[in-house]
Amino acid sequence: MLYDKKQCSNGNDMTEIKETADEKQQDFIREQIKTDLESGKINRIITRFPPEPNGYLHLGHVKSICLNFGIAEEFDGECHLRFDDTNPAKEDQEFIDAIQKDVEWLGYAWGTRIYFASDNFDQLYKYAEYLVKTGLAYVDDLAAKEIRELRGTLTEPGKNSPYRDRDVNENIGLLRRMKSGEFEDGSRVLRAKIDMASGNINLRDPVLYRILRATHPRTGDDWKIYPTYDFAHGQTDAIEGVTHSLCTLEFEDHRPLYDWLIKHLPVPGKPEQYEFSRLNLTNTVLSKRRLTQLAQLGHVSGWDDPRMPTISGLRRRGVPAPAVRDFVSRLAISKSEGTVEAAMLDHCIRDYLNQHAERRMAVLHPLKLVIENYPEKKTEELVAANHPGDDAKGTRKILFSRELYVERDDFMENPPKKFYRLAPGREVRLRFAYLVTCNRVIKDKAGEVVELRCSYDPETRGGNAPDGRKVRGTIHWVSAGHAASAEIRLYYPLFEKPRGGNGDDYLENLNSNSIEIITGCFVEPSLSQASRDKPIQFERTGYFNLDESATEDQLVFNRTVGLRDSWAKGNPKK
Ligand code: ATP
Ligand code: MG
Description:
The protein is an alpha/beta fold. The protein has twelve helices and 25 strands. The chain has helices at residues 28-38, 59-74, 93-106, 121-133, 144-150, 168-179, 229-240, 255-264, 288-296, 311-317, 321-329, 342-356; strands spanning 46-49, 78-83, 114-116, 137-140, 189-192, 207-211, 225-227, 244-248, 272-276, 358-360, 362-363, 366-371, 379-385, 395-401, 403-407, 427-430, 435-443, 449-456, 474-475, 477-479, 484-491, 515-523, 536-538, 542-546, 555-561. The strands form six sheets. The chain has a seven-stranded mixed beta sheet with strand order 10-23-24-25-21-22-11, covered by helices on one side. Strands 19-16-17-18-12-15-20 form a seven-stranded mixed beta sheet, with no helix packed on it. Helix 7 crosses helix 8 (255-264) and helix 11 (321-329) packs across helix 12 (342-356). It is elongated. The two termini are 29 Å apart. The structure holds adenosine-5'-triphosphate and magnesium ion (MG). Adenosine-5'-triphosphate is lined by residues 50-52, 60-61, 63-64, 84, 247-248, 278-279, 286-289. Adenosine-5'-triphosphate (ATP) is lined by residues 50-52, 60-61, 63-64, 84, 247-248, 278-279, 286-289.
């Protein structure tokens, strides 16, 4: 199957998608690594996945995880899990724990190779003093606003700070006093002394350290100054022995600074940075900041709300890890920006679940069906296949009785021509059971159909008529006296427009009907033993899993994905 621009229903500029998942991974980064190994530039490849623990991981991060861990696996190298914990104002142990759980769930192991940028705070500080002593960094007393004003623009050079030419001893003294907590937060910074006229704004004396009193999840209140991302990242790569530091394109303009610092510091390695385009997905948002906002403002129930594109949200919705990996393996690793259709992810989920999910029957909108010629107290055990294409998944027994529930939509009083399900006088097949004919309809005072009175043909057990008469419709059902009641939650995209998650007004584009909670559903009694990580297909309805809020008394199921893709066909639930 080839996903290309032509298939994109919404006319967006879609990113390249590979034909199949099992194509050998090939991209400019892997090519570079091959060259570096063959030329002897490196002996062993070391990559890292470097999350900042200030939120939960989302599908964009999965692209980076699969790339970094995948490359390490393919080239017999290693991948570090590195926490980029240099901004304690926003970071938390909760996120450190959640990130580990998520990476593990995806199927990647870091073994002993778990690192924290904060483990290097002492060394990084020594590097800072080294830069000062070599005349390559200075303490600036300007306020953040003034620094910004002097930075210049893309078309105009910046101007030197009046503190730029302080002598080395004064700088060292001030830096030490910053470290010992003598100065107010934000009152001074350490800056690299590079070039205020550089065409690359990142080289206009970037900030390396700032004063910040915040309790760090690992170093507590030991530090009053913290390194910036730019200062910590490359040096941490070098200390850890990382050979290829893979990141997203927004860091491309930071690479000259990355290289400058590595060149001017006595670091133990020479990592190189390579950038690739980030994953964007339609009808959602892949930015920790925005996802945090959605959770904090109560637009979703939390980070693991099944509508969220977070790993925890996907997991709670019942998306299996192999389907996520399959999806990501189809993404091109390149430098061209684009947006992938969410329908593609659904396709991968469906593809996996179709093979792995056992089938069950569930009625979401029940309508009572009474079989008048079936004995009142009788119950029969019927045999149902757990998977139509996989005999190894075995069979189960289902109970049949006089009173059943069927889906309200499977009955029409005045059906159009091509409606093959129940209607007055019409015969249908009850899945795994018998052929039944609707004889009579009972309505309430408002004229609403509340019950169907039917008769069954006892000769049709299993669903086939011995005389060979044709019955086109097959519908699902549950036995009213035996079924377990359940709440079923259906999910729709968070944003109505494909690009809805972009732009500053993204909150205005939220789909106000992204969740539909259906109570009073009935499911096969065996589902009271459903387990959260075992996906199920409710026949004719979709793939579901048990929600973590379910209790013994109240079953709750999430629809992971529907059977067919109504969203991509331009028929969204609004
Ligand atoms: P966000 O933009 O969501 O806030 P981030 O880049 O700040 O994410 P980090 O924790 O710094 O989050 O990211 C860890 C790694 O994941 C980085 O190397 C980053 O480049 C990568 N990454 C983040 N978002 C994406 C994405 N959408 N596609 C691919 N890689 C991503
Ligand atoms: Mg980041």
